[in-house]
Amino acid sequence: MSQQEKYAELFAAEAREHLAEMSRALVVLESEPGDRDSLDAIFRSVHTIKGMAAAMGYEVAARLAHAIESVLDELRQDRRQVDSEVIDLLLDGTDQLEEVVVATVEGEKLPDPAVTIERLVLWRLAADQADDAEDSDADSEPAETTATSRSKAGAIGPVPAGRGRPGLGGRADSRVRVDIRRLDALMNLIGELAIVRGRLRALAAETGLNPLQEAVERAGGLISEMQSEVIESRMVPVWQVFDRFPRLVRDAARKLDKEVEFEMSGKNLELDRALLDAISDPLVHLLRNAVDHGLETAAQRAKAGKPAAGRIELAARREKSRVIIEVSDDGRGIDRDAVLKQARAQGLIDGDGTTSDQELFRIMARPGFSTVENVTELSGRGVGLNVVEDAIRGLGGSVELQTEKGVGTTFRMEMPVTLAILRALLVEIGGQVYAIPATFTRESIELDGTAVARAHGREWIRWREDRVPLLRLGRLFDAERGSEVDSDDLLHVVALEFGSSFLAVSVDRFLGEEEIVVKPFAMPLGAVPVFSGATVRPNGLAALVIDVGSLARWPEEPDARIPLAS
Fold this sequence. Notes:
Involved in the transmission of sensory signals from the chemoreceptors to the flagellar motors. CheA is autophosphorylated; it can transfer its phosphate group to either CheB or CheY. The protein is built from 17 helices and 18 strands. It has 566 residues and is an alpha+beta fold. The chain folds into four domains: 149 residues, Four Helix Bundle (Hemerythrin (Met), subunit A), CATH 1.20.120.160; 54 residues; 180 residues, Histidine kinase-like ATPase, C-terminal domain (Heat Shock Protein 90, 2-Layer Sandwich), CATH 3.30.565.10; 132 residues, SH3 Domains (SH3 type barrels). The protein is flat, with a radius of gyration of 29 Å. The two termini are 43 Å apart.
């Protein structure tokens, strides 16, 4: 990569941060027109983009940024008041500027911002004409003063310090941008070092040399510290993704003519960068669905005795090694009867029995399932919840639904804080070692084979007073050497919890817990069912990482197989 390409990538990353900050602050400014800090933050961001674009020779981006900056300066000078018209204009300008930045950096054909710039200029001219009308009535005001004030409209004055996001505009540059691919490569190298450490430990134990053993232990400690530092360097605050959502909710509400109050909490929580990128699209689906299907119109809410403005909340919090993200609304709730009626019509369920919230979610998350008759620009194609579930499950997480008619709906997503490393229970099946993420394991127990019951075409065990389905992994993996496959003797069972579901799996042996570095499969292995990746153990051999979410949904047919044994 050339120096120019590196600078272009840096410009794009910086510009996107500033553009996200502009969109966030503009939405705040629309609801609080007197918020001077937001206005100053927007001005700082566009001023910085203009300077960077000019330095890089990106003339079109610099010209558009200057036009936006000039409108903002009119507002800062109190020549015009903040209203929906100018907010719409500035948001359109921000969108156009992002398109120009992306096209410029990627070497694509530049969109023509002439129409947007013309609208920005016309708005300023209207402001000047308003000033002229006021000045003509102020005989005591010297003409020189008016001319002087107008000349400052496009000038760049001092930008007041505000509560802008750390790292945006005028920052003390104490951070360095690192491509996450470099961090991934570094993590892989540390994983290789860990393997070497294991071999050295074995060698030191064989030789019995104390100095060698001490050196190996010291090296092991340093490797662990390096690993922790790399993991920390991958962590970023969730506001880097969350801050784009106020604009999304605002635009969706306006298209549907609904009043919405949107609140976020936990924005300073830090997550793995790769994980944060992966949850962006699922959150977009859930927020759009909340506006479109969850919230009622103002008239419907008034009839139900609710405030005219619906409420949507996006909350993030950490619980031990897991992160919880919830999207809630105080709308109409999911129409359970409509969902079940559609499910029966599609042959997904039989009978008229009761359905839990989680069973309702599983129905709604089926590919193509939708109760919406009219497809809109925002939703109704039957892809949203399917995308959400697949994405979160792919991260080793789960999705839960809570809904009450007339009260509202909450989607609760639980996932690991980082994708780079996890604690796992190692088990042996058919002579092979497998890793089960410890966040899903609840208990490892030994049972007499006679304690297994069969009903409804599958096996069950009693665990903590509950009847839990049993999945024999030796049979599933077609591991003929697995002692647990058809034995009525002692069973080694792991109780797993995934979302609100419980599952028991039988294995040959428990090997204990370890922290492992997970390496995802490259295609075509990425499509292997029930496995999310692999890890290399200190002895140099690989262990497959079991995807508990896939196990929980595995077909109930007793003859289902995943042939892996050689």
